[in-house]
Amino acid sequence: MACGLGAVALMFVFIKESTFSPMNNDFTIELNEINKSVDEININLDMKSNELIKIIDEKNNQITFAEQTATKTNIVNKKIKELSKSNKDLLSMLEELESITETKYKPIKKEYISGCNVSGRKIIFLLDTSKSMLSKELINILEMSMKTDSEKNKSKKWMKGKDTLTWLIDNTPETSQILIAGFNTDLYFDVKEGAWTKISDVNSIQRQLINLFSTPPDKGTNLQKAILKLNPWKNADSIYLITDGLPTQSIKNKSSIKISNCLNDDYVSGSCRLSFFKEFKKELSNFSKTVKLNTILLPMKGDPDAPYHFSLLSTSSKGCFMTPSKNWP
Questions:
Q1: 116 to each of 212, 316, 320, how far by Cα in Å?
Q2: Is the pTM of this model over 0.70?
Q3: CATH code for the domain in which residue 122 is found
Q4: Which helix (DSSP H) or strand (DSSP E) does residue 65 occupy?
Q5: Torsions phi, psi of 114, nearest 5?
Q6: Could you list the residue range(s) of the whole structural domain that residue 171 is in?
Q7: Which residues contact residue 270 at a Cβ distance below 8 angstroms, ignoring those fewer than 6 apart?
Q8: Could you give phi then psi for residue 227, rounded to 5 degrees?
Q9: Cα(267)–Cα(175) distance, integer angstroms
Q10: Which residues contact 118 (CB under 8 A, 6 or more apart)?
């Protein structure tokens, strides 16, 4: 018991003698160090946070850019497909146009026995452009002459004449030179006097045809004057005449009472037409003796003598004579 009390007493002695007191100790330095470390950690955290924000922003920007790129790529791919389709369509159209051009300008050798083959080194193609080329019936000619130029140009007989001329040109030998001319009361052509056009010069031929076909049939038929004005080309060896009957006019001739009376008459009789045809024959004799007259006679009612006289003149010159069927050329 005494020992126990002694120990307690000794403990109190130790406590009393001790100088340590937490309230009396100064921790400022330690706190400052800790605060400094905390501040450094906070600054580091802020820097890392900012870096993280930048990384996130950059990632978002990359995602946005990728989405925009994908959208643009889709648009470009779609446009490429559209352009590719358009290109195919254009190529198809171009091939079609080239096909049309080749058919239009290159000779078309149809397997059709016309009995009037195109031959000659220098060839004159002469198309009747008089009013009678509008129809084979007189009443229809009068009716058509009252219509517009557009309607006249679409008349069946005139279309037949134009198709016949085009067919003849398409079937001309590749080494030939040609003249394209139209006539009614005068002669019409679209080249210099005496000039020939090579059959290979398709642009010139097309221009001449367009000019010839642009004006619908009109006026009377003066074959004598047409042949007279063809004198600069009288070295031709073939003439292809597309007409529909004996001429209705002639050049005034003071020495011929018959011609004068016919020209003064309002109505052109069959007899007068035959007289005009004879004047045409005289003019044709000024050409080379070897020239061949080839006649394609389109239908015309009221002129029964035309086939006989044209066929006789054509065959006597070793040329051909034909009256085309409905499905020719």
A1: 23, 15, 6
A2: no
A3: 3.40.50.410
A4: helix 28-105
A5: -90, -25
A6: 118-322
A7: 246, 303, 304, 305
A8: -65, -40
A9: 45
A10: 168, 171, 172, 173, 176, 238, 240
In the block, tokens 């020495």 appear at 255
Distance CA 307, CA 301 (A): 11
> What's the rounded Cα separation, in Å, for the pair 263 and 266?
8
Using an 8 Å Cβ cutoff, are 303 and 128 in contact?
Answer: no
Asked if residue 217 belongs to a domain, the reply is yes
Helix (H), strand (E) at residue 185: none
Q: Cα(308)–Cα(196) distance, rounded to whole angstroms?
A: 32
- Tell me how long the chain is: 329
Q: How many domains does the chain have?
A: 1
Residue 185 lies inside a defined structural domain of this protein? yes
pLDDT tens digits, the chain, 329 residues: what are they?
555 555 555 555 555 555 555 555 566 777 777 877 777 787 877 787 787 888 888 778 778 877 777 787 778 677 777 766 666 666 676 666 655 544 444 444 444 445 688 999 999 999 999 999 999 999 999 999 999 999 999 999 999 999 999 999 999 999 999 999 999 999 999 999 999 999 999 999 999 999 999 999 999 999 999 999 999 999 999 999 999 999 999 998 877 888 988 998 878 999 999 999 999 999 999 998 899 999 999 999 999 999 999 999 999 999 999 998 877 77
| Residue 234 within a domain | yes
Euclidean distance between CA atoms 169 and 157, whole angstroms: 19
